[in-house]
Design the sequence.
C-alpha cells in the first residue's frame, strides 16, 4: 500500500494552490522530488554514462577527429531544440503528457542507434553508413533529452515555490548523480570487456528500455497545466507577452554561450586525450566517477544555501572556480595523471551542482507565465555555441594534429594549447552574471487592442 501511495499521481486543483499558483504541500513535493530523481536516472543518467564512450565508439567504427567533433556537438542540440518543449507543453496542456511524448522520442532514437550498431556488428552495413546513422541517432537522442530537460525545468517551476527550489532540486540531482556514477562505471567496464559495435548496441537498447521505464515513473508525478503568457490578467483584457528585449535574458544567454562553448570544446577531446595517453576506459570512467561522487555532498549543501541567498552568487563563484581549474588540463603536461585527478576533485564540487544552480537561476529570473518559452529561447543560444565549438574544435584538432611547442623541458602538444583556449573562453562567463545584478525578466503587457501598457 505504501508503494502505491508513493506513486499515486494527480492533477492539482486551483483551490490547492497559493496566491502565486504554487504548491504549498511539502509532503506532496517530497514524494515528487524523489520521483523526479528516479525519472532522471532513467532518461538522463544512462545517457551521461554513455558520453565518454562516444569517442571510443567513433574510433572503433573507423572515424577521425572530425567525426569526434561532430559527435561532441550532439549535446549542443540538446540545448538548441529546448524551445520545442514549450511547443509540447502548449499542445498537450499538461506537463505529464508533454514529458511522455518527449520520452517516447528517446525510445525511438535509442532503438535506431541499437539497430544500426547490431547491423554493423554483423557486417550488414558499411563503416560510413554506420557512422552516419550513429551521428544521426546521437543528435536525435540529444534533441529528445533537451526537450525533456525543458519540460522538466518548467514542470518543477510550476510545482515548487521559489524559496524551496534548492531543497527540491538538490535531492533530485543527488538521486540522478548516483545513477550517473553507477552507469558511468558500469559502461566503462563493459566497453573494456568487449569493445565491439554489437556491445554498444546492447547499451543503446538499454537506453530505449530505460526511457519506457521513465514514462511509467513520470506519469505518477503531480501534474499541472502549464501557464501561458496569453492567459488574461484582468477584466480590462490585458495579456502578457514574452519580453525578448530584456537585458537580463540576454545576460543569461551570454553566460550560457561562453560556459557551454568552452566546456563543450574541452569535453569533446578530453576522452581522446586520455585514450592517447594510454588510459583504459575503466580508468577514464573511474576518474569521471570521482567527480560525480564528490558532487553528491555539494548538491545537498548548495541546495540549502540557495534557498536562503538565491542561485546567482553561488553560480558566479562556482563558474569562475571551475573555469580556472580547467588550466589543470594544460598543467597535465607537467603533472600527468595527478593534474587530471585534482581537476576531477575540484570539478566534482560543481558538476551537477552547477547545472542545478544555472537552472534555478533561470527559474528565479523568468516569470511563471511563459517560463518554458524563455528557457527554450535561452537554450537555443547555448546549443548554437556548443555546436559551433565542438565542430570547429574537431576541425582545429584534426588540422593541428602532431603540433608541439617546447618550453624549457616541457613539451606542449596540440591538446594542451587547445585546452588553454577553452579555459580562457569559459572564464569570461562570469562577466554577464556580474552585469545582471539582482534584476529579473518582466513580460510585456498589452491591452485588448494589442498595444503595450
Sequence:
Amino acid at each position: 500500500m505504501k508503494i502505491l501511495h508513493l506513486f499515486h499521481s494527480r492533477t492539482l486543483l486551483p483551490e490547492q494552490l497559493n496566491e502565486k499558483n504554487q504548491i504549498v504541500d511539502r509532503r506532496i513535493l517530497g514524494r515528487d522530488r524523489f520521483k523526479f530523481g528516479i525519472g532522471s536516472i532513467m532518461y538522463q543518467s544512462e545517457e551521461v554514462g554513455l558520453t565518454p564512450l562516444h569517442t571510443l565508439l567513433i574510433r572503433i567504427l573507423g572515424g577521425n577527429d572530425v567525426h569526434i567533433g561532430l559527435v561532441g556537438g550532439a549535446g549542443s542540440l540538446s540545448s538548441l531544440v529546448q524551445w520545442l518543449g514549450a511547443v509540447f507543453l502548449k499542445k498537450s496542456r499538461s506537463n505529464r503528457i508533454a514529458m511522455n511524448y518527449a520520452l517516447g522520442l528517446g525510445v525511438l532514437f535509442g532503438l535506431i542507434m541499437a539497430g544500426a550498431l547490431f547491423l554493423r556488428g554483423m557486417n550488414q552495413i558499411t563503416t560510413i553508413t554506420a557512422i552516419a546513422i550513429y551521428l544521426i541517432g546521437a543528435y536525435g537522442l540529444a534533441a529528445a533529452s533537451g526537450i525533456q530537460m525543458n519540460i522538466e525545468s518548467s514542470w518543477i517551476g510550476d510545482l515548487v515555490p521559489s524559496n524551496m527550489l534548492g531543497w527540491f532540486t538538490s535531492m533530485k540531482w543527488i538521486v540522478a548523480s548516483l545513477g550517473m556514477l553507477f552507469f558511468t562505471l558500469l559502461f566503462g567496464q563493459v566497453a573494456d570487456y568487449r569493445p565491439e559495435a554489437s556491445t554498444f548496441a546492447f547499451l543503446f537498447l538499454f537506453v530505449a528500455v530505460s526511457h519506457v521505464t521513465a514514462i511509467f515513473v513520470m506519469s505518477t508525478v503531480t501534474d499541472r497545466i502549464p501557464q501561458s503568457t496569453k492567459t488574461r490578467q484582468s477584466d480590462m483584457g490585458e495579456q502578457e507577452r514574452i519580453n525578448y528585449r530584456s537585458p537580463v535574458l540576454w545576460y543569461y544567454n551570454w553566460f550560457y554561450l561562453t560556459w557551454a562553448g568552452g566546456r563543450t570544446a574541452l569535453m569533446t577531446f578530453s576522452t581522446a586525450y586520455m585514450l592517447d595517453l594510454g588510459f583504459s576506459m575503466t580508468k577514464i570512467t573511474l576518474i569521471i566517477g570521482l567527480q560525480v561522487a564528490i558532487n553528491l555532498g555539494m548538491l545537498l549543501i548548495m541546495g540549502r544555501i540557495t534557498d536562503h541567498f538565491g542561485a546567482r552568487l553561488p553560480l558566479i563563484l562556482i563558474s569562475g572556480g571551475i573555469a580556472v581549474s580547467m588550466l589543470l588540463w594544460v598543467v597535465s603536461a607537467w603533472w600527468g595523471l595527478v593534474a587530471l585527478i585534482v581537476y576531477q576533485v575540484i570539478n566534482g564540487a560543481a558538476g551537477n551542482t552547477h547545472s542545478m544552480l544555472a537552472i534555478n537561476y533561470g527559474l528565479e529570473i523568468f516569470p511563471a507565465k511563459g517560463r518554458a518559452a524563455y528557457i527554450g529561447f535561452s537554450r537555443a543560444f547555448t546549443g548554437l555555441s556548443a555546436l559551433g565549438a565542438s565542430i570547429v574544435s574537431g576541425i582545429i584538432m584534426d588540422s593541428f594534429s602532431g603540433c608541439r611547442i617546447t618550453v624549457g623541458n616541457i613539451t606542449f602538444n596540440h591538446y594542451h594549447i587547445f585546452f588553454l583556449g577553452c579555459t580562457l573562453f569559459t572564464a569570461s562567463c562570469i562577466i554577464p552574471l556580474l552585469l545582471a545584478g539582482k534584476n529579473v525578466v518582466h513580460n510585456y503587457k498589452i491591452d485588448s487592442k494589442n498595444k503595450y501598457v
Notes: The CA atoms of residues 128 and 262 lie 29 Å apart. Residues 127-159 form the longest helix (33 residues). The radius of gyration is 22 Å.
